Amino acid sequence: MDAQQTAVGEKRYHDSNLPSRGESLEMGQEDMAGSDEKALEKRLVRKLDLYLIPLVMSLYLFSFLDRVNIGNARLYHLEEDLHLTGNQFQVAVSILFVTYLTFEVPSNLVLKKFTPRRWIAFITVSWGVIATCMGLTHSYGSLVACRVLLGVVEAGLFPGLNVYLTMFYTRHELALRVGYLFVSAAIAGALGGLLAYGIGHMDGVADMSGWRWIFIIEGIPTFFLGIATWFLLPNDAETAYFLSEEEKKMQVIRLARDYGVTTSAQQFSKVDMMKAFKDWKVWAFAIAQFGIDTMLYGYSTFLPTIIKGLGKWTTAEVQLLTIPCYFLGAATYMTVAYLSDRSQKRGLFIVIFGCVSIVGYGILISDSSAGVHYFGCFLVALGLYVAVGMPLAWVSPLRIPSILLPPLDPVPLTMAPCSYRTIRRDMVREQQQTVCS
């Protein structure tokens, strides 16, 4: 009898701890709701990648191409036609970064006032016109003027795009998407070499040198890209024509969950701006980026000149020899960005691949054969885009709230071109002497 009562008591005890039929149904519905929410978010991210990334990549691709194609144009007698002497070519190249660094922060602040769609479309059309006009210059002064204006209008694009991506992607998704921008830079280098190879055969068409056609043919598409941007680039999730109402609500929820975005956080104030500039992490990052970007601008602009100095190749062959280096850089960054997003580790990849680029530069300045030097170009490309691009995703989780993004982002990107202008000059002068000898 006691055993029977005990068994009944245990049964009642266990039954009392089991969820009721109604509770079980509610728990099942919650699981289904959670599953549906994850599926909705995955579909949302796929849509963002499909509609935003190709346009964003195209914008940065043409920006980078129009900025550094002067290095390709140089091999088609640009200096001789414009009667450049001494270090005038280096001045024409580096003068762009004076206005670039001056207008980078103001341009990024204007972005929020005039909305991304309007501002990015405007600066894209503007630099397309200026880049095309570089092919019509007839003197050192006009070339410098075009480069100065190009720096003004291009200044806000990259930091603006970096901020723009945070309006749609969470911090855990950023590394791969920022990676797409640097893949665009690598593709621009490869495409620049390929286009220069083809366009170079137009030397003499309409009595114009090949370098003029490089600027004109690579500048015109940018103008039309800017017009397309006006119609295709949404300002935020609310104005994204390709998102359903359900997806728009999900976008607001996931950004609020990740960044702590609130309505008050979207209101700009001088206090927020000063807070960003007083943050020691911003300046530590800026100093680090100063050194890293020395590699990016020096390598991207002067790789054709470096390869030209390694052997007795024709101009067309030099253009083709630049392409494999850039493709290696693009493939490496995409792979590392994917692994970084999966592991959520940034610093380790930056250190490893930064060291690879340092080794590559060491080989370039060593007394070695042309083949070894060319191998050094590959090593630089292997680590270059990882070392430059990954930090931008690394620091993104530190940006609280989102309004701090506009004043924060351009600071390191503004300091970086200074390194190119101040450090690269002597190296370029040595390369110029090698080419001319």
From TrEMBL:
Domain of life of the native organism: Eukaryota
Q: Which UniProt keywords apply?
A: Membrane, Transmembrane, Transmembrane helix, Transport
Q: Which Pfam families match?
A: MFS_1
Domain called Major facilitator superfamily (MFS) profile: residue spans: 52-437
Any idea where this protein resides? Membrane
The portions of this protein that span the membrane are 48-68, 88-107, 119-141, 147-166, 178-199, 211-233, 282-300, 320-340, 347-366, 372-395
On whether Transport is a keyword of this UniProt record, the answer is: yes
Entry's Gene3D superfamilies? MFS general substrate transporter like domains
Q: How does it sit in the membrane?
A: Multi-pass membrane protein
* Record's GO cellular component terms: membrane
Keyword Ubl conjugation included in the entry's annotation: no
What is this protein's record name? Major facilitator superfamily (MFS) profile domain-containing protein
Give the organism, scientific name: Coniochaeta pulveracea
Q: Show the taxonomic lineage.
A: Eukaryota, Fungi, Dikarya, Ascomycota, Pezizomycotina
